[in-house]
Design goal:
Layout: E1 5-9, E2 27-31, H1 34-77, H2 90-100, E3 104-108, H3 114-125, H4 127-136, E4 138-142, E5 160-165, E6 169-170
Parallel strand pairs: 3-4
Antiparallel strand pairs: 1-2, 3-5, 5-6
Length: 194
Amino acid sequence: MAYHYDIPVWSVKSSDKEEGKPDDECRCLLLHSDKQLLQFSIRTGVMLRWVLFALLIGICACAGEEKKKKVKSQSLSRGWGTNIRWVQSYDEGLSKMVKSQKPLMVIHHQENCPYSQALKRVFFADKTIQKMAKEDFIMLNLVEETEDQNLAPDGYYVPRILFVDPSMTVRADIVGKHSNRLYAYEPGDMAHCE
């Protein structure tokens, strides 16, 4: 049992384009059996599904990569300055410090500490400090303590800021104004950094 299907494909004469009338001559696609029509439809459908699937995967991959970059940048800055290039660990900071010959600034803080949050807001808002941090230092902010005892010369408290010079020496002589927490800084102290 063979069925013939005539599927018209209309063409339009150039003089009839405005009116959209079909041409008297029509071209027809003639498929000779149901089986051929079904095979044509299945192949076309499968190909279309694969193309759509590949397109979806490509879009998701691109969006994922962009999100990873943004999340990594945000997670390293932790709100202290998104235009600053932050290092991920103390060891990475020491390595970059030696290569660049720029001092390392290590900011110890806690997310749930109101003093850390107040210092962070002032640090982030001050354009001069942001520029200095970006251009003159290797920057690291830590919410976890390091194994290096030199980064806690007078105890473990937050917020505290310590500096390490390119000779790998923690600069114990650069202190804040408090005698009981030498490396603690408050929002008002940021004016003295400029």
